[in-house]
Specification:
By secondary structure, this protein is an all-alpha fold. The protein has helices at about 5-20, 55-70, 80-95, 130-135, 140-155, 160-165, 170-180, 190-195, 200-205, 210-225, 235-250, 255-260, 265-275, 285-300, 305-315, 320-335, 340-355, 370-380, 390-405, 410-420, 425-440, 445-455, 460-475, 475-490, 495-520; strands at about 110, 120, 125-130. The model is unreliable at about 1-50, about 165-170, about 180-210 and about 360-365 (pLDDT under 50).
Length: about 525
């Protein structure tokens, strides 16, 4: 596929999301930012009582879209990057009271393997961030400017307000339409054919309203990133750099295509910057480490992998300690992906030494120095296939210590369970995982690990029951019902487990029936 056509294919997805975002009405009587304080609650567009799309329906719609996105090969399923983005984005969301709205809606930030510089918001608070955006951001303030902008779209319910104007029975077809573009499952020719048809006119009409929503997202995003302690000039710096790139290369970056940037918007943001005190914020080491992982994962399996190594080698020459450590970390991660465990260990030790140049145990590394992300890679190497038994045993001790030191890290919690299973302690793993799934019921990976632990114990019925819950979370109800059937037929199933299986199966079959009826009604 020619490069230009490939870029059009990638940007088509965000164009559709932009169309969804672009339907918000203008804000009447917008208050100048100079008259607002960081403690002020975010403004609300319109009267929510007149919306047809409730927050519950909006969240359900977003969850349905996300289930499909997670199945796509370009969904970047990396625990460390996902954890960084959710910590980063969650801090921005919490920086301004009222961002979550009256319902206290959850936000979920997830990475997508795509070289295009872009981010997008989906119904229900799901925000996707392209790996290309993460790599293009030269500072966390620049990344904050884009992520805050997307949070602004969600907090102002730009998507929900447009969808609320549609008939309820059109919601899921529209979701499928957006999803087909995001996952690039339809051919670009077919997708363009849809746009040229009757729906194309509707999309164009929605785009005509996008400027109001974009300006509102700018205002809200500016307030959020300022309250979060980031340099607000990063917003203009990033936008201007994208504009310059479009002039030099003759093509509009995906973010500017889906979020049209006008001179009026830049002037408005610049005026706001003049009214706020300058704030310099150093980038965290986690930002650089996340970029290093994203670069490896974006280029794996492509001809650009050699360029990835060259980029890291060039980065080693920089004087900034974080940049050097991130390059060494990236080379370690790259070696691990290539199966070079010795090289991965060597580069990892160098990265650790760069961050801790003086004497001191690695275990004492504080979280602000990337301790959790370093621990994730350290355990990835020690738990990799082919490691001797003594290394795996050491991984178990290290995982227990890391999980205790960083109790909020979901990545380390999963690795701790993995280490227990790999070290031949499935009984300990099942006890730990049972507690974890009670705390984090929506974590499908925990159920996968629990199924693995049960398998190592020889508990076949429980293994299939755990797999069934994993499939439920993935939206694969027929597969979940099939797993329950396997559990029922297992030789070790107990009377109590039979009862649980029967009740769960009735529930899932009722959900299947309801979904089929919904499809027929549409």
């Amino acid at each position: 596929m020619p490069p230009a056509r490939a870029r059009r294919r990638r940007s088509f997805a965000v164009l559709l999301v932009s169309a969804v975002l672009g339907a918000a009405p203008a804000l009447a009587g917008d208050q100048p930012f100079s008259q607002q304080s960081n403690a002020t609650r975010l403004p609300t567009l319109g009267d929510t009582s007149r919306e047809d799309l409730s927050p519950i329906v909006e969240r359900k719609l977003g969850e349905e879209i996300m289930r499909e996105i997670r199945r796509d090969r370009n969904y970047l399923d990396d625990d460390a990057i996902g954890e960084y983005l959710n910590n980063f984005g969650g801090a921005l969301v919490d920086a301004v009271p009222g961002t979550r709205g009256e319902t206290g809606a959850d936000f979920t930030f997830f990475p997508v393997r795509d070289g295009a510089i872009n981010a997008f918001a989906l119904p229900g608070g799901f925000i996707g961030i392209h790996s290309g955006l993460l790599l293009a951001a030269q500072s966390e303030s620049e990344l904050a400017s884009v992520v805050s902008h997307e949070i602004g779209h969600v907090s102002q319910r730009h998507i929900a307000r447009m969808l609320g104007q549609q008939r309820q029975d059109m919601l899921l077809p529209l979701a499928s339409f957006i999803l087909a573009a995001l996952a690039a499952k339809a051919s670009p020719d077919a997708a363009m054919g849809v746009l040229m048809g009757g729906q194309g006119l509707a999309v164009q009409r929605q785009l005509n309203f996008s400027r109001d929503a974009e300006r509102e997202a700018d205002r809200v995003g500016f307030q959020i990133m300022g309250a979060g302690g980031y340099d607000t000039s990063g917003m203009v710096a990033f936008f201007k750099r994208l504009q310059s790139a479009s002039k030099i290369y003759g093509e509009i970056p995906a973010f500017l295509s889906s979020h049209p940037l006008t001179s009026e918007r830049i002037v408005d943001i610049q005026a706001r910057i003049k009214e706020t005190p300058y704030r310099q914020r150093p980038d965290s080491i986690e930002f650089h480490l996340a970029k290093a992982r994203a670069r490896v994962l974006q280029d794996m399996g492509t001809t650009a992998r050699r360029d990835t190594r060259t980029t890291f080698q060039s980065q080693l020459a920089l004087q900034h300690r974080h940049q050097q450590a991130a390059a060494q970390y990236g080379l370690s991660f790259l070696a691990l992906k290539e199966g070079d465990l010795a090289g991965a260990r060597s580069w990892f030790d160098k990265a650790r030494a760069t961050m801790r140049p003086k004497e001191g145990a690695f275990s004492a590394m504080p979280a602000s120095d990337g301790g959790a992300m370093f621990a994730v890679l350290d355990l990835d190497i020690k738990l990799a296939p082919g490691q001797p038994k003594e290394v795996v045993q050491q991984a178990l001790k290290d995982a227990a210590e890391a999980a205790s030191r960083y109790p909020l890290s979901r990545a380390l919690a999963r690795q701790y369970a993995d280490a227990m299973i790999s070290a031949g302690k499935p009984d300990d793993a099942t006890r730990y995982l049972r507690d974890q799934v009670q705390l984090y019921r929506q974590d499908a990976k925990l159920y996968d690990l629990l199924a693995r632990a049960y398998s190592n114990q020889g508990k076949i019925a429980l293994q299939h029951m755990a797999l069934a819950e994993s499939y439920v979370l993935a939206g694969a109800l027929p597969a979940a019902v099939a797993q329950l059937d396997f559990a029922r037929k297992a030789s070790d199933v107990s009377f109590y487990e039979q009862s649980v299986i029967d009740a769960r199966e009735r529930e899932l079959k009722a959900r299947q029936k309801e979904e089929k009826e919904d499809e027929k009604s549409r």
